[in-house]
Structure to design on (1233 residues):
């Protein structure tokens, strides 16, 4: 065997909860694997759906998004909107054929340094097991990267984003924030746009 | 009479305050008072401010780097135009009245001109005479011409007149020859200054335990017996051994370290019967760090009682002890002896009387805190009274006021205490001085002026990267020079360097110089976390004429070196990646316009107990309107459950008087039976809806009141824990300490013929129900035991405890109780007392407990069984949802920083005090409430705020007017308007909080966020891959 594989993980942490939790893990000297690189954003609501796709396309083996616990968002409901973006990412990964376990959105409050460490340690282990992009998928890595790049472009496009607006609207109306409901909403509202993209980009 | 009538009070009041002592308490008091609009004279005896905290390596309970969190404050003081630092100075006398004192100060010469010295250090280099380095506890030497420590403020050298060859023997004088700045002044003279001030704050800190006491434990005789202060310096990267714990005798790493507690504390023989409150915790910190330095070192801690009663302390201690496998022994070895083959011998007796002896490589004496050596002199100069231990005398209900009106005391001189309590008191005293001098606010201050911002439009990015060693915090793990060299190779990086401490004042000056010299237009600092240090570096950028939005931080300490301590290479790689990503983002940062917004000059205080009422009064006294809302019909809160304090006063009376003052105050509006139901806005401009229930409790009709206010103080209190064990509720002979308080107030407090009373401590606390120590129960038990003894001296009292935590001067009561025959028996949590009561609970309860001294089970039938039940937080869920403020796992509000921002919450403009923060005593609650009030009034006194310009902006050309942003904005900060009949969105900057939901949802990507632009984040994402995208 060659040297042990260490995954590259990119994280988007909200300033108020998860980034603070990461800092407090440091202050408490709680140790975790050194694979994560963090981008600070004010709120996970800022997470553009194209960011995680760009991250994977740019060489990350896993993407972590960390925010405040549901109902505890510093900005009221940014983390729910993040769940909408995350559902789109998962849907796109599914269509490309990339393991959904490469993308995780989870929560740690400002006081939860050890919880943050637990999440990151588990996620790092999970991504390590998946191996480099394409391995567990049994696919050509270059081809996956190309499709991810195109997916990111599509996520910047008006059609998909309009679908997300409709999903967010529905979510705010029904106040049902369960992950499954949100995933169904996104699938439902973006189906046309995704089909169009999928036909053009994925099907050779 | 011909004498003109005295001008009115307002005109004669001074707008200046003198703070005596430049330790962390004094520094914080100075900053807080300056922020409230007062001129401050900061009088420091030594040549630099910083005090003891500047000498510490780390601070408990988080083991945060001490100087790293202090240095930004020192820099801020040095930079504040309204704070005048007088070093080598002391207060000689104080004449006049509150509001218009004249303070006479003697300022000793530095012999080096502070204004001219540029801190180059040539004088030290050439100085021929060496002296002990006091900053390093004389464990190494420095020169007569020196600076106390490298981050010292003022950043100026000075000459020790007692040892200088030139000043004493007219020889040498080399420093004057080599000083390029011509700053040496051998003819410098002592000055006497008469300074008019309105109030005086005494913050001289604490004194050291005498060498005589230390000598009893072999200090001075054996090289390897160290004081905790010496040990602290050995651990510190800037210390005499560059951060290695080495035995003085043989320069070897000790493998077995013993910590002896209560050196010079709880010790009648040296006159200090009080407990110094901080040593138990700092020993745990030092032990943990010693283990971090050397994972093989064996550590033993000798305690009388483990007193880790602060917020989060027990949890930190438990974790440290378990993770590091510390041995904790309840014993007090009486002395240290040497043995023939090296090593230090300790002998002790355990609970059962068995003797033990063992050899150690190093013994650390956890020395206590004493009153300052010159306490009497200072008291005479300021005209105040001292207590019997030479600390400043204060009263429980006015904890920060001395015996002289207008003169206040904070920090360790008020009583032994830790940093966060000192900082709290500093905030409190600022509130009090601000109240006293309110008519003269802003009368002696000047506004800060920054150079105009340089226009960087059209310039190519020129990024400067500064990598911080943070002593050994980063440098001990990450290869900092390697990261620096790597940074230099990154695109657009034109300058890269490393600093020992990036946050020190000299580094700030250096940063400004480098920015100008290299025409930098973007700055990246790779150090700790932007959450604490971004403002410091941004202020430096403003001084260099750069917009503060052109700044980016790479978090290579909290999120790198501290969490990958054993993976140096991987941590270095990570640091490189983070720097690369930060630099990539920095290139795309643009200057952002800052907007000044008006502030509603009033406050809302939630909770009408002791803390809330004190906060409201302290705010109103400063001249600001205040609304106090209380859930119950009456003000007073849970202090009303207490019937006597340890000095024999009636707390209920004090609270009633406070309530009357609150009700009378023209600036306070009290609303009872009221609840906060909604709040919106931001610091300076909150709008709250308060539901007011009908005063007749039988109806449930209610009304809504809307209040506009600038700040919020949360004083929602706590409640007594109600136990469900130890037969509570099964017999009327089983009471809580609170029940007992009520009973002791009655005519016949004790049952007839009351022979035996048993008290059980830590019921609920430190266990499964409440995981923390409730701090006050030990003191309360001792107080009530003494009350019972006074009523019925013959009653036998037994207190079953785990650790008696009668910290501070409460130790006097503990001693007195033992002298009066109260029996204290330690129980271990594994073998808790067992209580049985007969059915119906009429007969006496029987308590069984294992007595470790007798080594057998004791059985006591008791007339009364008293349970010390601890304090729970009042459920904060509703408020945390409304205000978006975090709480700890124990449901107390989580402060923004445990040491330095103890009453601020993470949300700007929201403050906390009293039991809602953590369990605490009456005097501590009052001081904290005054602190919350002092801090809360800062934006009100300023009159305006400048919000962070991280708001959203709409590109009207791209906007299609779909309205999604308006719909999803949680703050109604985006509005649609019509332009040429087409709908467009625009941001209301003042309302935007910068979450970015609008940007993430905009279908045409017409919205972008300040500092977190799409392109900047994308560039950061692309830089994630070292090969680039």
């Amino acid at each position: 065997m060659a040297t042990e594989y260490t995954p590259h993980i990119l994280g988007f942490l909200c300033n108020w909860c998860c980034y603070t939790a990461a800092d407090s893990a440091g202050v408490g000297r709680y140790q975790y694997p050194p694979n994560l690189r963090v981008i600070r954003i004010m709120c996970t609501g800022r997470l553009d759906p194209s960011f995680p796709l760009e991250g994977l396309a740019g060489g990350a083996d896993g993407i972590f998004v960390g925010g405040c616990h549901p109902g505890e968002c510093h900005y009221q409901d940014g983390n729910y909107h993040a769940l909408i973006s995350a559902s789109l990412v998962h849907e796109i990964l599914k269509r490309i054929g990339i393991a959904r376990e490469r993308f995780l959105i989870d929560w740690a409050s400002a006081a939860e340094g050890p919880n943050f460490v637990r999440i990151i340690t588990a996620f790092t282990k999970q991504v390590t097991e998946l191996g480099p992009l394409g391995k567990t998928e049994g696919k050509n890595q270059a081809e996956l990267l190309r499709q991810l790049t195109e997916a990111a472009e599509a996520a910047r496009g008006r059609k998909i984003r309009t679908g997300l607006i409709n999903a967010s609207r529905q979510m705010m109306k029904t106040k049902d924030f369960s992950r499954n409901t949100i995933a169904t909403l996104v699938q439902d509202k973006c189906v046309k746009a995704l089909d169009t993209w999928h036909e053009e980009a994925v099907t050779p | 009479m011909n004498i003109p009538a005295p001008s009115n009070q307002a005109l004669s009041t001074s707008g200046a305050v003198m703070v005596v002592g430049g330790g962390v308490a004094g520094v914080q008091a100075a900053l807080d008072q300056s922020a409230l609009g007062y001129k401050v004279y900061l009088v420091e005896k030594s040549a630099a401010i910083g005090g003891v905290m500047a000498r510490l390596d780390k601070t408990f309970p988080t083991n945060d780097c001490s100087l790293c969190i202090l240095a930004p404050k020192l820099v801020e003081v040095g930079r504040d135009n309204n704070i005048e630092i007088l070093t080598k100075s002391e207060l000689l006398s104080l004449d006049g009245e509150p509001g218009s004192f004249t303070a006479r100060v003697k300022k000793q010469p530095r012999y080096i001109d502070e204004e001219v010295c540029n801190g180059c250090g040539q004088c030290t280099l050439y100085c021929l005479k060496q002296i002990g380095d006091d900053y390093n506890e004389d464990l190494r030497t420095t020169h007569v011409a020196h600076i106390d420590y490298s981050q010292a403020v003022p950043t100026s050298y000075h000459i020790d007149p007692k040892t200088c060859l030139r000043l004493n023997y007219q020889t040498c004088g080399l420093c004057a020859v080599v000083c390029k700045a011509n700053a040496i002044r051998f003819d410098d003279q002592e000055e006497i200054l008469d300074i008019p001030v309105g109030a005086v704050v005494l913050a001289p800190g604490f004194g050291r335990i005498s060498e005589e006491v230390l000598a009893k434990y072999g200090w001075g005789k054996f090289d390897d017996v160290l004081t905790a202060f010496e040990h602290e310096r050995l651990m510190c990267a800037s210390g005499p051994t560059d951060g290695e714990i080495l035995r003085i005798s043989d320069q070897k790493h000790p493998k077995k370290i013993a910590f002896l507690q209560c050196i010079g504390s709880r010790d009648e023989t040296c006159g200090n019967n009080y407990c110094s409150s901080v040593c138990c915790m700092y020993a745990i910190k030092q032990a943990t760090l010693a283990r971090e330095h050397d994972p093989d070192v064996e550590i033993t801690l000798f305690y009388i009682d483990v007193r880790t009663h602060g917020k989060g302390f027990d949890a930190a201690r438990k974790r440290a002890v378990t993770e590091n496998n510390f041995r904790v022994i309840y014993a007090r070895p009486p002395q240290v002896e040497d043995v023939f083959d090296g090593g230090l011998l300790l002998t002790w007796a355990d609970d059962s009387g068995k003797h033990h002896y063992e050899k150690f490589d190093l013994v650390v004496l956890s020395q206590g805190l004493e009153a300052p050596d010159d306490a009497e002199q200072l008291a005479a100069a300021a005209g105040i009274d001292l207590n019997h231990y030479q600390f400043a005398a204060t009263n429980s209900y006015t904890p920060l006021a001395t015996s002289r009106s207008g003169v206040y005391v904070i920090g360790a001189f008020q009583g032994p205490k830790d940093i966060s309590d000192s900082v709290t008191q500093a905030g409190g005293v600022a509130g009090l001085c601000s109240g006293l001098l309110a008519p003269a606010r802003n009368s002696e201050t000047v506004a800060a002026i920054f150079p105009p911002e340089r226009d960087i439009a059209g310039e190519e990015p020129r990024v400067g990267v500064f990598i911080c060693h943070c002593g050994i915090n980063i440098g001990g793990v990450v290869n900092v020079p390697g990261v620096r060299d790597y940074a230099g190779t990154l695109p657009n990086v034109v300058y890269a360097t490393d600093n020992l401490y990036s946050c020190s004042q000299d580094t700030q000056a250096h940063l400004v110089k480098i920015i100008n010299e290299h025409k930098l237009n973007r700055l990246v600092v790779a150090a700790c976390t932007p959450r604490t240090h971004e403002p410091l570096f941004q202020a430096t950028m403003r001084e260099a004429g750069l917009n503060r939005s052109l700044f980016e931080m790479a978090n290579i300490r909290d999120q790198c070196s501290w969490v990958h301590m054993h993976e140096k290479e991987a941590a270095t790689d990570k640091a490189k990646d983070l720097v690369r990503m930060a630099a990539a983002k920095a290139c795309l940062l643009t200057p952002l316009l800052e907007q000044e917004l008006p502030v509603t000059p009033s406050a809302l205080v939630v909770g009408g107990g002791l803390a809330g009422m004190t906060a409201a009064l302290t705010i109103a006294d400063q001249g600001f309107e205040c609304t106090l809302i209380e859930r119950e019909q009456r003000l007073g809160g849970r202090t009303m459950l207490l019937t006597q304090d340890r000095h024999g006063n009636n707390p209920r009376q004090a609270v009633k008087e406070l309530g009357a003052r609150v009700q009378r105050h023209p600036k306070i509006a009290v609303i009872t039976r009221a609840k906060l139901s909604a709040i919106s806005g931001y610091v300076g401009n909150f709008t709250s809806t308060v539901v007011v229930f009908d005063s007749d409790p039988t109806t449930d009709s209610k009304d809504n009141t809307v209040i506009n206010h600038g700040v919020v103080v949360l004083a929602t209190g706590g409640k007594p824990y109600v136990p469900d064990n130890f037969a509570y509720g099964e017999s009327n002979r089983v009471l809580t300490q609170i029940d007992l308080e009520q009973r002791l107030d009655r005519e016949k407090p004790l049952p007839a013929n009351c022979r035996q009373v048993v008290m059980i401590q830590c019921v609920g606390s430190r266990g499964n129900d409440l995981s923390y120590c409730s701090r006050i129960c030990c003191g309360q038990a001792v107080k009530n035991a003494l009350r019972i003894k006074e009523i019925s001296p013959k009653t036998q009292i037994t207190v079953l405890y785990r650790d008696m935590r009668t910290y501070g001067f409460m130790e006097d009561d503990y001693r007195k109780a033992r002298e009066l025959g109260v029996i204290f028996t330690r129980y271990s949590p594994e073998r808790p007392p067992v209580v049985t009561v007969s059915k119906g609970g009429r007969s006496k309860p029987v308590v069984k407990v294992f007595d470790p001294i007798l080594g057998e089970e004791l059985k006591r039938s008791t007339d009364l069984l008293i349970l010390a039940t601890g304090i729970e937080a009042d459920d904060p869920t509703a408020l945390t949802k409304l205000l978006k403020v975090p709480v700890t796992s124990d449901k107390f509000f989580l402060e923004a920083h445990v040491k330095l921002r103890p009453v601020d919450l993470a949300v700007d403009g929201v403050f906390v005090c009293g039991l809602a923060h953590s369990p605490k005593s009456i005097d501590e609650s009052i001081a904290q409430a005054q602190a919350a009030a002092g801090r809360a009034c800062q934006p009100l006194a300023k009159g305006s705020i400048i919000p962070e310009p991280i708001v959203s902006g709409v590109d009207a050309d791209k906007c299609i007017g779909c309205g999604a942003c308006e719909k999803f904005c949680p703050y109604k900060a985006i509005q649609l308007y019509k332009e040429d009949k087409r709908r467009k969105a625009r941001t209301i900057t003042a309302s935007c909080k910068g979450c970015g939901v609008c940007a993430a949802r905009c279908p045409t990507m017409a919205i972008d966020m300040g500092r977190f632009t799409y392109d900047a984040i994308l560039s950061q994402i692309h830089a994630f891959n070292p090969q680039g995208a």
